[in-house]
Amino acid sequence: MSKIEIKQLTFGYDSQENMLFDQAELNIDTTWKLGLIGRNGRGKTTLLNILQNKLPYQGQVIHQQEFVYFPQQVKETNQLTYDVLLELSNCELWEIERELMLMQTDPEILWRPYASLSGGEKTKVLLALLFTDDQHFPLIDEPTNHLDVLGRRQVAEYLHKKKQGFIVVSHDRQFIDEVVDHILVIEKSQLEIYQGNYSIYEEQKRRKDEFELAQNQKIKKEVTRLKKTAAEKAEWSRSREGDKTKKRVGFIDTEARRVDRGSIGADAARTMKRSKAIVNRMENQISEKEKLLKDLEYIDPLNMFPNQSHHKRLLTVENLQLGYEEMLFEPVSFSIEQQQCVAITGPNGSGKSSIIQYLLGDFSGQAKGEVLRPATVSISYVRQNYEDNMGTLTSFAQSHQLDLELFLNNLRKLGMERDVFHTRIENMSMGQRKKVELAKSFAQSADLYIWDEPLNYLDVFNQEQIEQLLLQVKPAMLIVDHDQRFLEKVATQRIDLQRIK
């Protein structure tokens, strides 16, 4: 059993005001199957790079490990997949075939050009390669990207059965639940370890936050009381000083004239000194109390304002089939009414996004069946591919006729830092660009919302925000996503596409 020790880790990028890590401490047992989570931009991939000594940092990272990182960088994509893997690592064919079989994947894909593989197939062959190497500690960054429900289940079962430890970054809560036994959370600029899977962490975090919130409220009340008392003492001290001044200049009544003026002055000075000491002590107490306040992770609720359409039914689909040379799926029928969320599910390549394209008038293949919707129904669309979003946030909002304040406010609530507001969209990270695409839809008052894989690149905190928003607002919606926990919460109906055999 070996350890990875992190001592007083401090790191930040020059372009950011705040440190990602500030004197962070951590001890990791390398036998753990560790899930790494945290808000977008908090430093998950950065931490993996620090472990690999790819970034300069202050502090110490002590270990006896050699690391291997997923996803590996593939340069020559036109070669056979097996040749690509040989260039990445010194592995035996039988080892790769064994790992693919454990992932319930046909080893024949090794003899296809790498460029011809789907995103899910590429994920599987690179993971298979990763685990042929039992000499290095695996750092697995977002393995669920591009995987459909079946692919995620297969990879989850595969990782669950592995005996060696690893660190995995994923925003799929169900996937994390199934594969890890410890959770590492980047909370603000610190690192926290929780024993158990994501659900256990979530419950522990909820209880911890409730306790700390109650403590914060108690401390704030005590600080308010101390400040009020200190203000009263300070005012009393000032009034005594005034009394002393008046007496010095002779503003005293007849009876006071009989009292020794030196005695009065000395008494006032002593009283003032005592009151000032009391005020100083209270200020010190206030300062110490305020240091006890916990810097809690607040997740602000998002806002969206769907149209209040007079149409009860917004979309009707009857016996729809789509395809090119051959049809992709068996006929499907469904309808969407006010406050209904219909989810389309199915394996990669079954035609989920094709249905969205057809509804929007962008499908170039052949179609059978009928689609009915009122001519006046307005649609807000979150795209799976949004690389053409460009320019400043202000110009983007203007070009899409968005309420700029609502648009920027939702971006801020999604966790986008204010210094990023001045970055052009094309220069943002993929997670930040996804937030722009979503915030655009939040700011559009539409009758029907169509979202294609909205959770890609979003952290678990953003996912919870979106869940809460949809459950509260209940917009009419057609949605495609592979996150089963998300769909179980928000979908009122599920349409599972069946491929034509």
Automatic annotation (TrEMBL):
<dbReference type="InterPro" id="IPR051309">
    <property type="entry name" value="ABCF_ATPase"/>
</dbReference>
<feature type="coiled-coil region">
    <location>
        <begin position="272"/>
        <end position="299"/>
    </location>
</feature>
<protein>
    <submittedName>
        <fullName>ABC transporter ATP-binding protein</fullName>
    </submittedName>
</protein>
<dbReference type="InterPro" id="IPR017871">
    <property type="entry name" value="ABC_transporter-like_CS"/>
</dbReference>
<keyword id="KW-0067">ATP-binding</keyword>
<feature type="domain" description="ABC transporter">
    <location>
        <begin position="4"/>
        <end position="213"/>
    </location>
</feature>
<dbReference type="InterPro" id="IPR027417">
    <property type="entry name" value="P-loop_NTPase"/>
</dbReference>
<dbReference type="GO" id="GO:0005524">
    <property type="term" value="F:ATP binding"/>
</dbReference>
<keyword id="KW-0547">Nucleotide-binding</keyword>
<dbReference type="Pfam" id="PF00005">
    <property type="entry name" value="ABC_tran"/>
</dbReference>
<dbReference type="InterPro" id="IPR003439">
    <property type="entry name" value="ABC_transporter-like_ATP-bd"/>
</dbReference>
<feature type="domain" description="ABC transporter">
    <location>
        <begin position="312"/>
        <end position="499"/>
    </location>
</feature>
<dbReference type="InterPro" id="IPR003593">
    <property type="entry name" value="AAA+_ATPase"/>
</dbReference>
<keyword id="KW-0175">Coiled coil</keyword>
